[in-house]
Amino acid sequence: MNTTPTVHPVDPAFAADARITREQYQRLYAGSLEQPEAFWGRIGERLDWMTPPTVIKDTSFDLHDFRIRWYADGELNAAANCLDRHLAERGDKTAIIFEPDSPDAPAQHISYRELHARTCQAANALRALGVRKGDRVTIYLPMIPEAVVSMLACARIGAVHSVVFGGFAASSIADRVADCGSKLIITADEGRRGGRGVPLKANVDAALKLPGTNSVETVLVVRHSGAAVDMQMPRDRWFDAVVDSQPVECEPERMNAEDPLFILYTSGSTGKPKGVLHTTAGYLVYCAYTHEAVFDLREDDVYWCTADIGWVTGHSYIVYGPLANGATALVFEGVPTWPDSARFWQVIDKHAVTIFYTAPTAIRALMREGDEPVKSTSRGSLRLLGSVGEPINPEAWRWYFEVVGGSRCPVVDTWWQTETGGIMISPLPGAMDLKPGSATRPFFGVQPALVDPAGRVLEGEAEGNLVITDSWPGQMRTVYGDHQRFIDTYFRTYPGNYFSGDGCRRDADGDYWITGRVDDVINVSGHRIGTAEVESALVSHPKVAEAAVVGFPHDVKGQGIYAYVTLVAGEASSDGLRDELVRHVRAQIGPIATPDHLQWAPGLPKTRSGKIMRRILRKIAENATDQLGDTSTLADPSVVESLVRDRRVP
Ligand code: WTA
């Protein structure tokens, strides 16, 4: 890119009052790299410890001496840090504002004291049902207060939660339950989204009929929509019936800093989703501190992150970061476009939201509706905007800044991953000039580097693969049940470094611009989907012989899903079969994996050794058929011509 980006200098009024100014960032950043022990030791003091740590950083990315341990001899409880320690001074402060799907249903304000009591009751209920420290609990809930309560209840008793996004279908739930051997599932009768019901309990029932799921002893069902559901006694219990009668005090479990806090499944370039495991202290320190610094948090802020708790953004920046900081966080059950496309802005006005954190895909979708729905609202309470999940294109950034934020609110474009636990590269709003489309600078303690495919470090202005050269506290510790996969996935490509899977450019000022995934992961509306997962869903259909899936640029979703399918010999292609295969993928994985285009492929472009050349398939899907490159190494170059001819024009 040769175009000079627009620079929005730090707003002096904002900087005057900011938690971290430019000078402070420079000094603290340098200190965080020179003396990580001293830096993170000091930051760790923000938590309440049962035993304060003496060893702060004990890490090495060297494959012969690999270890990642932070605050390793400390003891603490994450839920106590999110609740108990606020009671003295913030007991009556609102912890959670719940805004239901329907604007006509009443919002709820839940104070820290109430959230503490409800969490203790749920924790006692889990204990009464036999859940012990180290046991796994699957949470498959809509965006309702019980989701937060359930996560914190697990943390309180040392159970490891695995939250499964409510948009996943039965077999995705089953895979995740089976992988970690959950003992208990917390779900609801139904979720509500855009006025429609989501049959959560029915999905759990279907999942538990699938193989590998008989570790589950109990299903707790939150009564939410009131829809009739099938209760199988004694397995299924109503949440309120078990929880409401419990005592409102529950002794928090003493956890070692490196005891697991949660597992969250995420897609990679190969195989089934990985159970990303985060531990207690490093994760909590990191998400609390990033939340405070990046969002320039104030005591009276009303903070709203629109993510779902089924994704890491919900874990770190709806639950653990904000609550560890004693903030007021809004939990929204609904969707941006229902009852109309002004809903986000109406909710901002209704609850006087000051910090708003959302995804580029939502911004682009709302931008298409024009400025009117936004301008029908005031948004006068806003002071800071954030973006996460995928690269934000400069047009969307500008619309967000100018129309949504009225050119008053800095936009923090935050780059991070499920694996990183918290924000890694992002502007600090009082310290950095903003450039639409750039995540700008690394957070304290984060050492990014760009490498070429051979692993050579690129200096200065450059574009390459993004690695992180040393550990930070929020880093994942392992892939649940498969430590080798953790090492192989993240540390073997560029030995001595954590490999993010993202491409990135650094400009002449030293600002970072994430360019997107360089592996076989596609980012659809900010959701990570492995091409391998969609392919295996397709080939699980009896009429499919082979499938190859790639991403292509999509105006609203960022990337869309393009599938090439070869049918088994003798099967005829038809529009009916195409619809059936698309439905099959939705039923296997969930609606987020719905292919946008499905092209019949008499053959796939393969090398003589049988490897599918995805580069070519990507170019065809992108309609860049003039850039197919060298096809002479293909076993049968003629397949390319037929694929180009039959391309489905997106
Ligand atoms: C992408 C979400 C550009 C990136 C927190 C990363 C981004 C993947 C940004 C992680 C951003 C996230 N700019 N790309 N600000 N934030 N990504 O695990 O490709 O769901 O690797 O974590 O999203 O997605 P995940």
TrEMBL record:
InterPro entries: Ac_CoA_lig, ACAS_N, AMP-bd_C, AMP-bd_C_sf, AMP-binding_CS, AMP-dep_synth/lig_dom, ANL_N_sf. It catalyses: acetate + ATP + CoA = acetyl-CoA + AMP + diphosphate. Its EC number is 6.2.1.1. It comes from Lysobacter arseniciresistens ZS79. It comes from the Bacteria. It holds the Pfam family ACAS_N. The keyword Transmembrane does not apply. One of its GO terms (biological process) is acetyl-CoA biosynthetic process from acetate. Keywords: Acetylation, ATP-binding, Ligase, Magnesium, Metal-binding, Nucleotide-binding. Belongs to the ATP-dependent AMP-binding enzyme family. ATP binds at residues 389-391, 413-418, 502, 517, 528. Residues 533-611 form the AMP-binding enzyme C-terminal domain. Residues 84-470 form the AMP-dependent synthetase/ligase domain. Mg(2+) binds at residues 539, 541, 544. One of its GO terms (molecular function) is acetate-CoA ligase activity. This is Acetyl-coenzyme A synthetase. Catalyzes the conversion of acetate into acetyl-CoA (AcCoA), an essential intermediate at the junction of anabolic and catabolic pathways. AcsA undergoes a two-step reaction. In the first half reaction, AcsA combines acetate with ATP to form acetyl-adenylate (AcAMP) intermediate. In the second half reaction, it can then transfer the acetyl group from AcAMP to the sulfhydryl group of CoA, forming the product AcCoA. The modification N6-acetyllysine is found at residue 611. Residues 25-82 form the Acetyl-coenzyme A synthetase N-terminal domain.
